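User: I'm new to structure prediction. If I give you an amino acid sequence, what do you actually give back? Let's try with this one:
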Amino acid sequence: MNLVALPAFTDNYIWMLHDGRRAVVVDPGDASPVERALDALRLGLRGILVTHHHADHVGGLDALRARLEGPVWAPARESIPGPVVAVSEGDTIDVLGHGFRVLEVPGHTAGHVAYLQVGPMDDPLLFCGDTLFSAGCGRLFEGTPAQMAASLARLAALPRGTRVCCTHEYTLGNLRFAAAVEPGNPAIGDHAESCRRLRAADRPTLPSTIGLERMINPFLRCTQPDVVAAAAGRGAAAHDPVAVFAALREWKNRF
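Assistant: Good question. You get back a string of structure tokens that encode the predicted 3D arrangement of the chain. For your 255 residues, that looks like this:
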């Protein structure tokens, strides 16, 4: 399968998978980039994956239904413009002949899901919506710090080669925050330089990988001594990873 990041709005990506004939897209907040790509590549739209209910992820659904020849898979615990095939934790769906398992990852929204490619591979795809960003994570609009921390810990435990397909180009801003949390972490500066080169060439910084995120993402490093110390300086209890996460998230909200 071919993986393509379709830019939308000011910083969104709509992910497209295609095999040269058929395509599936993820979180189409705007129909126009999808329609242009389908027409340019002469692809049929065979399915849509939705991670959560925010408008910049579902706003294009109605317009795309006219050319959709397949299901819209969407989280069962959220209200998504229908008709949809509701999915929940542990469900496996067929996407262009490839299996994807549904993971419930609440925090950003109450019913947020992610889709993880399954099978004998070293670098499965993870469509994680706004739960995990490169060097960051989503704001807590509906969930609790404990929920989000648990969701992120679950994603961090995936194989290190897992490709992280999040839906916003927030990487450089997130890396500036990561450097403030861990100024002594050389991986952050190295990756920031690489990302600056990519953006200068108008290329996405994504997908990332779980292995890379474990090294640079403070929200996946809530037990690392320097991260714990930085959060303690913001009032977190050093022995409590959820309190560390909550302090980091509040800090990032105002950064």
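You can read the tokens as a compact description of the fold. Here is one thing that stands out. The longest strand covers residues 2-8.
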